[in-house]
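Final report, closing paragraph on structural work. Over the funding period we assembled a curated collection of sequence-structure pairs, and we close with a single example.
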Amino acid sequence: MTTFFTADTHFGDAPLVQRRRTAFASVQAHDEALVARWNAIVGVDDAVWHLGDFTAGASRAHCAAVFGRLNGTKRLVRGNHDTNRVLELPWTEPPVENARITVEDGEGQAWRLFLSHYPHRSWPGFWRGTRHLYGHTHACLPDTSRACDVGMDAWDYRPVDLATLIARQDAAEQAPEEMALRGLR
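Its predicted structure, as stored:
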């Protein structure tokens, strides 16, 4: 089993597709592409942490239909667009506002993570090696050596595994401000 992370799928969100995701000819094409890309890498036994904004403007029926087509056991960290039509989906566990978890990478190394829909400048466990994963920004903020956006816009419209996220953070040119002010990376 592999653990994946994603955010900002925005299934059914016509304004977003028209405004930012112009690579897709329609909302239907957007949704179909995201489902296909998700299922191409996420297996039925894999776990996915969705860090908010599963849908926006979609009907309950559309939310349920898309959710049912996505592989993996799914958990939700609530985003600003996640109303009852999303919160009431059959998530593996009840949706949360944020989460502190530990996940092993493919090599068996345990990583402490702070998950939130929103980016934080500092977060619980920051000085004890905890990494931060977030969404919401649609790839508008630069990665740091300890935090990055896991949203669809930042990852070619597909979920991403932990090892890839850690490698991207490790390669980031910037350190979080609190560390940079002390000359740390």
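The chain has a mean pLDDT of 96. DSSP finds six helices and eight strands in the chain. We thank the funder for supporting this effort.
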